[in-house]
Amino acid sequence: MKTLLAVLSVLFLSTIFHAQTAENVSGKIITENNEGQIKIKAAAISSSQTFKDLNYILITLKKGKSGTSSNKQSGKFSLKPNETRILSETNVNLAKSDGLKIFLFLKDEESDRTVAKDSLEINAGQFTAEVTFIPEKDLELSGLTIDETKTRMGQLFYESFFKKYNQIPEKYDGTVIITELPSFGRNSRITVTVDDLVIYSFLSKPDEEALEEEAESALNYLADYNANQNLREKEFKY
Predict the structure, then answer these.
(1) I need a labelling partner for 10 at 20 to 30 A (CA). Which of 51, 187, 199, 200 fits?
(2) Contacts of 179 (CB under 8 A, 6+ apart)
(3) Which domain holds residue 102?
């Protein structure tokens, strides 16, 4: 596994590292680079002689040409005495000019108090000055878009979709996930999912104009889905 320094030397990126720990528990963000795809792992490390029941929150913010995208993962876990445990893994496609911020919080399950935190920044200058930390009171994020594409065509679709999505006034409250799976030849299947429901799927081809049209179609399907969800909520209230 490549260390953080190895990752940054390959990408020629600048990094700022910050960690805080308390109660003999620490949080650690581990990164690994694979040809521009950053694998991010969140780890909890105990130097205590007692068991710990904790919650974790892992947040990634990516800033690229098409805008800013966010991802949040969270969950409960138990930590044994002197145990090191991997809590979560996620992948981010990162170009050399992209900025990335990662935040990890470990919280006591009973009191909800933060007992450890860690953060990492790559090309932090891509972000505006106000995006320097995540206030703990604002950890419940909504309206996220998650990029799980794997090829250049998939990335172009995601960037086109995200750019168009950022321009609409009303965002979807849930999480939009764009995934990509290999198919025949040079093609791949790109899928747009919301609320664990596939709302749009297509076979990609090496045609940027076609990808723009697919992004527009996916956005229209998302708008229809969002409108139907809002209508159901209003009907339920009455």
Answers:
(1) 187
(2) 148, 149, 190, 191, 193
(3) 25-129
